[in-house]
Amino acid sequence: MTTRGSILIADDDAAIRTVLNQALSRVGHDVRVTSNAATLWRWVQAGEGDLVITDVVMPDENAFDMLPRIKKARPDLPVIVMSAQNTFMTAIRASEKGAYEYLPKPFDLTELLNIVNRALSEPKKAVTTERAEEPPESMPLVGRSAAMQDIYRMLARMMQTDLTVMISGESGTGKELVARALHDFGRRRNGPFVAINMAAIPRDLIESELFGHEKGAFTGAQNRSTGRFEQAEGGTLFLDEIGDMPMEAQTRLLRVLQQGEYTTVGGRTPIKTDVRIVAATNKDLRTLINQGLFREDLFYRLNVVPLRLPALKERSEDIPDLVRHFFKQAENEGLAAKRISSPGIELMKRYPWPGNVRELENLIRRLAALYPQDEISAEIIEHELRTGELPQPAGSSSSLPDDISVSQAVEHYLQQYFTGFGDDLPPPGLYQRILAEVEYPLVLAAMTATRGNQIRAAELLGLNRNTLRKKIRELGVNVYRTSRQA
């Protein structure tokens, strides 16, 4: 059901004004359009409009400069901000200035209509824009692809909350960068950011590292030691590679998340804690749950806001921006300025990047340091990518025949799975676990192929739409829709 209202539109692009006017008028909204900020401000001051849609860059004033005046004059007036700049900082500034929503250009018209309807339907409330201090003007995340726009918008919504975030993605996709951005641009940025990598700490020391220990708690504990929870008090605790946390530590962490307090190893007095938890993993935690290696109740405590980072091969259009960014970093460190030829960039876009952004960064640093020429040719890129490729591990999925059937692939997987337990058997419940592991990629593939359209995906799968919606929620399927131009 559409909630009709009066909508004010400001954009100096006549084509955008026309498209929005026609689309919003067609569903019953009263629309007024202008090409400048002065007229928009005059309408707002006069009390006109139930909602504003404005571009950031206007001929006479930047929308970010006008937003505080709008929020002061009419605190409950929702403002949707559009921008062709499409950077992380644009999304953050829109959130900081009190925008109801940020939309990158080109935008999905259906999505905009849904946002407009939601904004008009929700109870009116003032948006708080007070900040302790302005965050640093930096660019922690780079890329303008549709996948990254979804990340930016999600992060912008999370900045003013303390919700627990679970970041998933392959190694090298930038999970710690995202965690740091959540901290540095959030309301806890004046507190400490403390990171701990579960995979890098001996299993018998993880509890001591997290919660600290008392003198004499175990052999070698000659003094009291503070844990990461205590070090992160008032700030953010980043739990990297959470899938490698042993079961005993998982139980203690769950207790902390439930009760908001912990005890040191060897201690008896509960200690209250005030930290924001951001966890990350490159593993499929649902598979670990099915294998009895990760607590399901802890997963749901950590997975309050799931955030999946796309692999670099899923956002190859960001490679030129990333290349310029890493070359600039190298230049700031004293290396000569460099660029890559257009054929070289195209070659990089086609490369699968098994090491993701980290692999790309290492390549750029190598090019900046080892090659004297100002422009790096496609031949050099081809040579570096070929010599830098890692051999495929034995038994990897890429060693299977291209024409293998689903049944044969599952049989191959089960043979490896049973082998991993040696003379023992896997935990009970194998039948449901295997069905769940097949179901997730099937639903994900259907949603990706239909660009997130649930009606078409349900038809493709032969499912009822409500059943598909339930599956998406239960399986945690997250699809990045590619934007269609307005």
From TrEMBL:
SUPFAM superfamilies: CheY-like, Homeodomain-like, P-loop containing nucleoside triphosphate hydrolases. Coiled coil: none annotated. The modification 4-aspartylphosphate is found at residue 55. InterPro entries: AAA+_ATPase, AAA_lid_NorR, CheY-like_superfamily, Homeodomain-like_sf, HTH_Fis, P-loop_NTPase, Sig_transdc_resp-reg_receiver, Sigma_54_int. One of its GO terms (cellular component) is cytoplasm. Pfam families: AAA_lid_14 (PF25601), HTH_8 (PF02954), Response_reg (PF00072), Sigma54_activat (PF00158). Residues 6-120 form the Response regulatory domain. GO terms for molecular function: ATP binding; phosphorelay response regulator activity; sequence-specific DNA binding. SMART domains: AAA (SM00382), REC (SM00448). The keyword rRNA-binding does not apply. GO terms for biological process: regulation of DNA-templated transcription; regulation of nitrogen utilization. CDD domains: AAA, REC_RcNtrC-like. Signal peptide: none annotated. The keyword Nucleotide-binding applies. Keywords: Activator, ATP-binding, Cytoplasm, DNA-binding, Nitrogen fixation, Nucleotide-binding, Phosphoprotein, Repressor, Transcription, Transcription regulation, Two-component regulatory system. Residues 141-369 form the Sigma-54 factor interaction domain. PANTHER family: DNA-BINDING TRANSCRIPTIONAL REGULATOR NTRC (PTHR32071:SF95), TRANSCRIPTIONAL REGULATORY PROTEIN (PTHR32071). This is DNA-binding transcriptional regulator NtrC.
